[in-house]
Amino acid sequence: MTSTSDDSPVGKGKDRYVVHTLAGYKIEGISVGGQETCIILPQLKIAFDSGRCPQRCVYADTLCLSHTHLDHVGGAGHYIATRSLLSLPPPTVLLPAQRADAFEAYVASLRALDGSELPHVAVPIAPGETHLLSKLHCVRPFPTTHPVASQGYVVYGTKRKLREEFVGLSGREIKALRDAGREVTDSIEVPEIAFTGDASGEWTRSDHPVARDALRARLLICECTFVDDAVDAAGAREYGHTHIDELAAAADAFENEQILLIHFSARYKAAEVTEAIEKRLPAGLRERCVPMLVGFN
């Protein structure tokens, strides 16, 4: 495995997290299957799932919830409340559209318990829809399979590309065209970051265009709950999770520059995870994969 990551835990207890730098992005967070998952991209001020809300999550302006199991949504109330306490703007919370009413009821109960307003903007979003993060970035969900309504997300960046008819011209010629009022570039979207959330490996075979883009995003953050034979690939699918063997079988589909593997079952030791990656993933895929192992002995 190749990595430019710093795998040293920072902090103690529930506030611990790990820092990686992959595909040009700093990634902070923690992910232990069944306990907590929160992945933070500070450069984009976005977080995927709230886990137990590690402190660094609070500074993400946008929270994308993949589904509403408590190890992924349990910290959402604390996230919203702490932003208010720190006088930060109300956050935007994206979530599967099917769970909008349940999330509203959840926050309403927290308001009653906390005696505070918990200001936020909930955005129910479904595959096929787009949410703008900034002038240069947007996010789109893609369908995944899990026991409750779930979805992954892809963050797209906007770049300018020289139009085909002007390729080969000198800089002076291109400047002259611009000065004459000609549009010399086109705006294109590039999949930058993909996050699967909890999902069976079936998404890798999906025809959904955003799921296909997830496979070519610069950085893929992908769940990999099971890594041994105690639960095989078929068993993992029954739980709505991914087995490492499914990733190996789909190795040729992954065009990502780097892949952060997350959500390993708490039953494993760190050494068992790294050994499985070395033994079960083909070299071309293995070299791009980095496991998030904070929280594992």
| CATH-defined fold name | Metallo-beta-lactamase, Chain A
Number of helices: 9
Number of domains: 1
Give the class-level CATH name: Alpha Beta
Report the strand count: 16
* Named CATH architecture: 4-Layer Sandwich
Q: How far apart are the termini?
A: 19 Å
CATH superfamily: Ribonuclease Z/Hydroxyacylglutathione hydrolase-like
Instruction: List low-pLDDT spans.
Output: 1-5, 7-15
Mean pLDDT metric = 91
Element order, helices and strands?
Answer: EEEEEEHHEHEEEEHEHEHHEEHHE
Oligomer: single chain
Dominant shape: globular
User: What structural class do helix, strand and pairing data support?
Assistant: alpha/beta
Helical percent range? Answer: 10-25%
**Strand coverage percent:** 25-35%
> Main beta sheet: strand number and arrangement?
9 strands, mixed
Rg computed from alpha carbons, rounded to a whole number of angstroms:
20 Å
Question: Which features does this protein show?
Answer:
globular, Metallo-beta-lactamase, Chain A, nine-stranded mixed sheet, 297 residues
Descriptive account of the structure:
It contains nine helices and 16 strands. By secondary structure, the chain is of the alpha/beta class. It has one domain: Ribonuclease Z/Hydroxyacylglutathione hydrolase-like (Metallo-beta-lactamase, Chain A, 4-Layer Sandwich), CATH 3.60.15. The strands form two sheets. Strands 1, 2, 3, 4, 5, 6, 7, 8 and 15 form a nine-stranded mixed sheet that branches. The protein has a seven-stranded mixed sheet with strand order 9-10-11-12-13-14-16. Helix 5 links the parallel strand 12 and strand 13 (about 220-225). The model is unreliable at about 1-5 and about 5-15 (pLDDT under 50).
